[in-house]
# Entry
Amino acid sequence: MLINVVVMLVIIQFIIGLLFAFNVVNARNEFLMQIYNSINSLLEPVLAPIRRILPRTGAIDFSPLVLIIGLQILMRVLLYATYGQ
# Structure
């Protein structure tokens, strides 16, 4: 369940970031900015090491995608270890 929560936080952070990037929502919207900053502060300790390993790709940040894939692999391994399926 914890893995699913982290994946959802990454997706929410991505969506809010897109809304800010394409000016769908103004970056001065305090409510969304607080949510974005809170999620960012929770995920930054996990995403920072991934960003250091990945090559620089300019404006596109692939670290959330790598984190989601890694968490999905971890979840599969844990399910297999627990239930043997």
